[in-house]
Amino acid sequence: MNDHAPPEVLTEEELRATCLRLRNWGRWGPEDQRGTVNHVTPEMVVAASRLVRTGQSFSLAMPFDQNGPQTGRRGRHNPVHYMIQSGTDAHSGCQDADGLRYADDAVLMPTQCGTQWDALSHVFYDEHMYNGFDLRLVSSRGAERCGIEHVSDRMAGRGVLLDVAGHLGVAALEDGFPIRAALLEAVAEAQGTVVGAGDFLLVRTGQLGRCLDSGDWGTFAGGAAPGLAFDTLDWIQDRCLAAVCSDTFAIEVRPEATRTIRRPWHWVAIPNIGLSVGEIFVLDPLAEACRADGHFDFLFVAPPLPITGAVGSPVNPMALR
Amino acid sequence: MNDHAPPEVLTEEELRATCLRLRNWGRWGPEDQRGTVNHVTPEMVVAASRLVRTGQSFSLAMPFDQNGPQTGRRGRHNPVHYMIQSGTDAHSGCQDADGLRYADDAVLMPTQCGTQWDALSHVFYDEHMYNGFDLRLVSSRGAERCGIEHVSDRMAGRGVLLDVAGHLGVAALEDGFPIRAALLEAVAEAQGTVVGAGDFLLVRTGQLGRCLDSGDWGTFAGGAAPGLAFDTLDWIQDRCLAAVCSDTFAIEVRPEATRTIRRPWHWVAIPNIGLSVGEIFVLDPLAEACRADGHFDFLFVAPPLPITGAVGSPVNPMALR
Amino acid sequence: MNDHAPPEVLTEEELRATCLRLRNWGRWGPEDQRGTVNHVTPEMVVAASRLVRTGQSFSLAMPFDQNGPQTGRRGRHNPVHYMIQSGTDAHSGCQDADGLRYADDAVLMPTQCGTQWDALSHVFYDEHMYNGFDLRLVSSRGAERCGIEHVSDRMAGRGVLLDVAGHLGVAALEDGFPIRAALLEAVAEAQGTVVGAGDFLLVRTGQLGRCLDSGDWGTFAGGAAPGLAFDTLDWIQDRCLAAVCSDTFAIEVRPEATRTIRRPWHWVAIPNIGLSVGEIFVLDPLAEACRADGHFDFLFVAPPLPITGAVGSPVNPMALR
Amino acid sequence: MNDHAPPEVLTEEELRATCLRLRNWGRWGPEDQRGTVNHVTPEMVVAASRLVRTGQSFSLAMPFDQNGPQTGRRGRHNPVHYMIQSGTDAHSGCQDADGLRYADDAVLMPTQCGTQWDALSHVFYDEHMYNGFDLRLVSSRGAERCGIEHVSDRMAGRGVLLDVAGHLGVAALEDGFPIRAALLEAVAEAQGTVVGAGDFLLVRTGQLGRCLDSGDWGTFAGGAAPGLAFDTLDWIQDRCLAAVCSDTFAIEVRPEATRTIRRPWHWVAIPNIGLSVGEIFVLDPLAEACRADGHFDFLFVAPPLPITGAVGSPVNPMALR
Question: Helix crossing, A232-239 with A181-191: angle to 10°?
């Protein structure tokens, strides 16, 4: 049942050829900073809204707190939450001169510490980001092109869940399990789900749920993981998907199908296709509801915070069904 | 046309009487941590989704960056954005051993620095927060009750815009202008808009737009502002609104109708009614679209980040119409 | 040779009696916010300066970075370092309009994340801090009394090292090893060191060096540790020490000699004696130099950052000998 | 008496020629990361310690808090101080299960937000930092060469104050006032102070004191300021100074003697001479004491925090006299 033999080796030439072949630079004009979310039309948004059948709403974000998956590796730590004013201050009389009893707080978070969108400025191809913008436009001052703010009003449309783990009858796919295009096809067919242009695809592996349930992150943060195989890129491009999201740290299978190149799927998806990628999405409760009534599509609204020049954003994606 | 005479004086007794009169403690059970968003039923969500008529989507968040309204007063500063890895690092060869060229970043933000939800743990009434929870449950460790995470899947439903500034034919209401219940009624009637149970009400004053356009925050951050008058509280409670949002710093009119009490409207709304309150919402473009076709209601989806124990959350609210 | 039998049990009554017996409240006036550093006279500073014999200088701070001992427990994380501008930005031409090529950075650190001073506002005795100030003066706004800034010019004088590990012939004392007053006496006598009024005492256990050498923090951050036994408090008070520092996380032995009370030594030392306490000091290289020439005293200068209202400060203590 | 005519114009060629002429690369070996603090010998430290005559100690740091000079410009903000635990938490019973009542806190600060050392990695000359290290070694990961940690044990020696404002009989020099080498000479002679090899020179303009006294930062943060003229660089190099510090934002006079080049003095001092530079030092109380007894030299101990890879450090410099 598990088809993951040792991953085939992908050479750098093959990788680069795929980058060039699937490249969408210029497709939406030379100044476009949005990429594949351009596939979504107003008509699609209207149609997606009609997928709200029962009024159930699902939050697909995991809690943002110190129990998150981050280890500090590569500078990614879990959110740090500080109180600026608290109920204990109020109780202690510290606000008596204020005329109001209140609490206030602040949070420090890597934009990619938890449930998140990658911006198109998050990954580069050689000297460029999506649409040919020079990568030096992403400096310590932030991203002057392709910052997350450019898609702040675009993350709404038809969401489609492909429940791979559910299809294979397991709680979670094994780490290292590659989800190939053919498997996505098979899942869609078994579910009776059509995946089409402008869709926001959510791929469920079960990995995040397994970690949350067990309280053990294991290799979640950047180590071995189930995920999309390299051959899904053509499939995604062919279908004109708006975005692809999953319940893993980095969407693609690890170990990857390359020897010296890290995250080859990202090389193609973000800077070349211009694909919006969502990671660490909580999909188990949604999947359960979908399985219960057989509807695997819904209205998906996942607005990133328009942090100016940010290369990603924490997000609380909503599935309304 | 402008009805703002010197504000009538509200005494502490009157304020406290209103608090008790409108109190919703126990209405949704002794353990409820959600308050008025409980007014929203699944049926209302379905109905709201049918308000998506043209597929236009509006992001109601202002940019999160150093140009925001905060002054550091009361510990609220504008967001600080740091890069963890950048395109210039990649260009400089610093990632050559990594096998991936990428950028990463982090943000430090008071939860109420920009467009935001107040959590029900944000404001206290004497020794309690909403539903009678002890305010000492909001300590330096965060809010053990009524944290923003408890409504993370509830901020979706029918949005209704009452364009007060537009109704009065001004770009922005004057600072200090009190929007009374009768005026909300008049605006609704003029717009042909029915405001009902479970609605997310957006009240447009024009103040935020005026500041953004002029590049001058003036007294925006906690000073004089147009906003809801005290008598709107009964109106809100009677209508069973899910939430009330506006394009000002703190929704209620300032100077307030009290001498020594700061933000009397908040005293009633948050800890007693259990009302979800949204502030610093960008409403001008949405209002323009509403005026253009005469539809002032839409699907509203404004998911807060489930920051565990947070007393508020930055948010990018979406209006789909 | 190792005298650490199961720790004798200290009752709360005994602890409280010691607190009252050693209490220095009012000793330096009702408004004093400095405590035992008042023992240091200008004459002592002059005399201490004459202990600089060879011109060797030792930095007693460990590196402030992500490799530190903190685990996030109780909100203490290791320092987070962000670049605001970098050499890669300069190299990439991002500063060409600036007329200057430079780097800039920022750091977020719990004040007690590494080598540090505790302020007298760090630990409370019931409802008070040192000198009887109300603990509610330490709110979310910081410490209105006894903040670290009040001793910013006082951390200079005669430093004395008692090398307990060296005396016992071990690289590091075992975790749980209690250093009793009699042992301090024995070490001082063996070293030929007189410990007197106004001295800054440094007690070496070897624990920090063991962790740094092995790259394994083990239980360092708040778990079992060698350290000062409860009976050293009388000894410290009798000798009118200015401060006591050590190469452990929290100076006192753990497990402690109490069942339900955490850090009983701190209860007495900080809020009652008003003792300045320094923790996580790097003492091994200094100890080696002291052993080499037999001089265990030196000029000690350890200025905290005057962070207004802070209850501690990171510090780079200097020993000049 | 005031000699500041319109500043002579310095051309880029002249600037570059000075850089090359005064360059110390290789002077202390190809791997040196410390620069001019190498001028300090152990004998000098011993001699400096004998300058402690009365036992007075001066903290030369300004308070680190929200009242500092920063405006957010170029990413430099004033320190943000957060409480992790507070006395109000303790008072409210939130720590009752802990067995200890305590407060804890954290601080976020640009390393150069207040009183500070510049590291030798702070300013670059074209593609290099001090000693010829490639500027790309200062990436988002921090400074791999010439980080502040390399001088953590070196900031101790003879301090010398040249009280320029005092010499000229003014409370503070006017903004734009250039302190030329000849004036430093004249001040030294008038004070009876010899400035020599390995000295830490403190130059008092009075600007910081004027701002602190008036509560008005004016142009302090990077605007017009009195300060060292370009011709002091030869004087500094000839005397083999260990470091130069002042009571201004950036030590050198502004507007500068160049048209398009910002901070020409820094171009020479940091990357070429390898000079340690201290800024925003509080010098008024020290100057008063020096004037009172005629001794303008003292023991100077100003240990930076060894923040790994930092390009500067906040510091609390001590003058013991």
Answer: 50
Which B residues 64-93 touch D at CB under 8 Å? 66, 72, 77-78, 80, 83-86, 88-89, 92-93
Peptide bond into C63 cis (omega under 30): no
**Closest in A72, A83, A141 to C140, CB measured:** A83
Residue bearing tokens 């300021």 = D225
Q: Among B210, B205, B208, B179, which Cα is nearest to B62's?
A: B208
Q: Tell me, what amino acid is at A270? A: I
On the CB side of D148, how many CA atoms lie within 13 Å of its CA?
Answer: 35
> CB D189: neighbour CB atoms within 10 A?
11
Residue carrying structure tokens 């009702």? C30
Q: Which chains touch A (3 or more CB pairs under 8 A)?
A: B, C, D
Residue type, D72: G
- Digit-by-digit pLDDT tens for chain C (321 residues) are 345 554 568 999 999 999 999 999 999 999 999 999 999 999 999 999 999 999 999 999 999 999 999 988 889 999 999 999 999 999 999 999 989 999 999 999 999 999 999 999 999 999 999 999 999 999 999 999 999 999 999 999 999 999 999 999 999 999 999 999 999 999 999 999 999 999 999 999 999 999 999 999 999 999 999 999 999 999 999 999 999 999 999 999 999 888 788 999 999 999 999 999 999 999 999 999 999 999 999 999 999 999 999 999 999 999 999
Residue D156 CB burial class (10 angstroms; 0-12, 13-18, ≥19): buried
If one counts every other C-beta atom within 10 angstroms of the C-beta of residue D217, the result is 17
Distances (CA, A) of D305 to C211, C243, D153, D244, D302: 20, 20, 10, 18, 10
Q: What torsion, rounded to 10 degrees, do the Cα atoms B272, B278, B279, B280 define? A: 180
Q: Residue D169: is it exposed, middle or buried by C-beta count within 10 angstroms (0-12/13-18/19+)?
A: exposed
Contact D163/D205 with Cβ under 8 angstroms?
A: no
Three-state DSSP class for residue C225: strand
Q: How far apart are the first and last CA of chain D?
A: 31
Task: Report whether C74 contacts D85 (CB < 8 A).
Answer: yes
